[in-house]
Specification:
26% helix, elongated
């Protein structure tokens, strides 16, 4: 296989990964708190003997969009949305993770949990509990949760210490290797949920672009294969 085929295959591999990301974005248009992803391409240039240098493309870095999703009013006291920066923190078997999906319900012992059963954490990293007999639960914009007029806890908002390390963990949850730090400036809205920040028109347009680029690369590989077959057949007849 020649240099041109290696370069083309490398490009096709990156386009395939990008197509998978775009398809996942489209599949989660209606997922609460979903953050769309993009792929960062980087160029790796190496000398190629006495000839021109060889350029290879790497597409291994995923970028998470910080754009705010649309707010939907639900009226549920345990549905929470973040306006501005920040993520909720939840306790999982794999360690604490952050999410923008704010659909919570009281668990068996009164703790607020996600649909997966992971407990919501306060500003100090402790689980948040609501008395089972509470008649009125309110959450103020600064995250203070009160039951029947008595303040119980302050819901924490967090950001990854190193934004570039944000790694998706199971749909709408993320982790960061360097840990988290308190978010400033975010507001919590009670009775609302934040939707996906995927723009359907943009993602479909991008899917078409990637598909066309992949088809062009495939055509190039096929022409190069035909050329090499022709050379081999010609030399074989001599």
């Amino acid at each position: 296989m020649g240099v041109s085929e290696y370069v083309a295959l490398n490009r096709q591999s990156g386009l395939m990964r990008e197509m998978q990301i775009v398809a996942n974005n489209i599949a989660n248009i209606s997922t609460t708190g979903f953050r769309k992803e993009g792929l960062l391409f980087s160029e790796y240039v190496v000398p190629a003997g006495d000839g021109p240098s060889l350029s290879m493309a790497n597409a291994n870095v995923r970028l998470t969009s910080p754009v705010q999703g649309a707010m939907t009013q639900t009226g549920s006291p345990f549905d929470l949305a973040i306006e501005g920066e920040g993520f909720f923190m939840v306790e999982t078997p794999a360690g604490n993770q952050i999410t923008r999906a704010g659909s919570f319900t009281p668990g068996p012992e009164g703790e607020l949990v996600t649909p997966d059963g992971y407990r919501l954490l306060d500003a100090g990293g402790a689980p948040i509990f609501v008395p089972p007999d509470a008649r009125a639960v309110t959450v103020s914009p600064d995250g203070t949760l009160s039951a029947d007029g008595r303040a119980l806890a302050q819901i924490g908002l967090y950001l990854p210490a190193v934004p570039e390390e944000l790694t998706r963990q199971g749909g709408v949850r993320f982790s960061a290797a360097s840990g988290y730090e308190p978010a400033e400036g975010g507001r919590i809205l009670q009775g609302f949920l934040e939707g996906s920040n995927v723009n359907a028109v943009q993602e479909i347009a991008r899917m078409i672009e990637v598909q066309r680029a992949y088809e062009l690369g495939q055509a190039l590989l096929e022409r190069e294969d035909e050329r090499l077959r022709g050379v081999v057949n010609t030399l074989g007849r001599q």
